[in-house]
Amino acid sequence: MHRHRSVAVTFSVLTAALIAMLLAATAAPAADLQDQLDAKQTKLEDVREREGVLTTTITEYGDEIDRLTGEVATIRNHEAAVAARLAGKQAELDGAVARLGSAHDRLLQIRTQLQRALVGLRERLVAMYESGAPDALTILVDSSGVDDLAARAEYLERIRGMDEAVVGRVRDLRNEAKALVTELREAKLTIESARDEIAAEEQALASARAALEGRQAELHQARATRVDALAQIGVHEAELEGSVAAIQSELAAQLAATGSAPLPAGPIQEGSGGLIWPVNGPITSGFGGRDIGAGYEDHPGVDIGVPEGTPIRAAAAGTVVLQQSEAESGGYGNFTCIDHGGGLSTCYAHQSSFAVSAGDSVAQGEVIGYVGSTGYSTGAHLHFEVRIYGQVTDPMGYL
Questions:
Q1: pLDDT class for 392, splitting at 50, 70, 90?
Q2: Which of 260, 240, 273 is nearest to 342 (CA)?
């Protein structure tokens, strides 16, 4: 009796051990995948941290580009001002040169006239010396009468007037010659000063142009660095989406193959804008422009990374107004849109299957479908959109 009981106990222990071994063998691959997923999630945090640093760097590059653009504009304005001053100095120089030419021609004329006046004056002085200048006593003694005296006096007065005119002409020509010499000297000084100022302005212009070229080179380098930083962010985002989505898909497939229970919907996570999160997971791709390798595209929603088969909750109560299969929607895959009233609607893409139908009324938090990778998708995730009167808007303003 005791022997049979001992055998039964031994058999029960062995059976339990065998079942435990089988369960452990079944759970081992899933545990390994979970460890890989945890490692990738850690890497995800590191990548996001680096992405934040890169985003800050890009902002700094943008500020630097704005600063350089402002300095380039200032230098260009300075260059234009220098060019205007150069034109003014050149006009002043041209005027001084013209005055110098006119003064030089006038001086030649005056010198010729002065030479002639001096010759005439010299001849008159010689004639006066040779004939002797009549004085008043001689005129009085030699006069034959009052009329002859008056005639002689008038004649003498005319001779004196002619002599004074010659002397005055010589004096005027001499003074004009001196004035022209002074004008020539001032014109030369003006020309020299203008030339010096033009040389200084030309040097300033050359310096401004050199500074402009240097700033432009810095600007191009900053832009190139910014492009490199953006490309690096794109690489990190591609690695993140590919690795995490692949592991999540493999984990979901393994759980399904081992007959594990369906994935739970998870606790409801309320947003700050009145909606709840349709699934609980990290944002793997944000709203707006994003790098897709061959260029940038406008991403009309957010991608939330969760395993395939994760239940999707309605973000708010409403009516299912649109439901399309992968064949109908194309890139969106299995696609559902819910109208919440007041112009607000939400859409859910890449589902593996539906849990509601078009025309159904749904409550907030009700399961409407399951996460998949249908349509244009690199792995299991939910593409979630918020639309206001049909126009997409950033869902993060409502979550």
A1: very high
A2: 273
In whole angstroms, what separates CA 389 from the centre of its chain?
A: 34
* DSSP state, residue 396: G
- Residue pair 327/374 in contact by the 8 Å Cβ criterion: no
CA pair distance 187, 318, nearest whole angstrom: 92
pLDDT digit string (tens) for 300-334?
A: 999 999 998 899 999 999 999 999 999 888 789 99
* Ordered DSSP codes for 179-197: HHHHHHHHHHHHHHHHHHH
- Distance in angstroms (rounded) separating the CA atoms of residues 278 and 222: 41
The per-residue pLDDT for 263 is: 58
Determine the Cα–Cα distance for residues 296 and 290; give it in Å rounded to an integer. 5
Q: How far is it, in rounded angstroms, from Cα 92 to Cα 82?
A: 15
User: What 3-state class would DSSP assign to 335?
Assistant: strand
Of 390, 380, 317, 378, the C-alpha closest to 353 is 380
- Is the model more confident about 40 or about 204? 204
Closest CA to 37 of 249, 351, 217: 249
CA angle 13, 16, 22 (to 5 degrees): 140
- Domain map of the chain by residue range? 11-261, 264-399
For 8-18, write each residue's pLDDT tens digit: 334 343 434 44
Q: How far apart are CA 265 and CA 311, in angstroms?
A: 5
Instruction: Kindly give, in sequence order, each residue whose CB lies less than 8 Å from that of residue 391, ignoring residues fewer than 6 positions away.
Output: none
Write out the two tokens for 367. 């399961």
Contacting residues for 252 by C-beta, under 8 A, at least 6 apart: 263, 307, 308, 309, 380
Least confident span in 179-183, 226-230, 240-244:
240-244
Q: What fold does the segment set 11-261 form as a domain?
A: Helix Hairpins (1.10.287)
Pick the range with the lowest mean pLDDT from 232-246, 247-261, 378-392: 247-261
Which H or E run includes 283?
strand 283-285
- Whether pLDDT at 223 is above 90: no
Q: What pLDDT score does 340 carry?
A: 94
Q: Which own/partner contact pairs does 120-125 have at CB distance under 8 Å and 24+ positions apart?
A: 120/166, 121/166, 121/167, 121/170, 124/162, 124/163, 124/166
Q: Which fold has domain 264-399?
A: Glucose Permease (Domain IIA) (2.70.70)
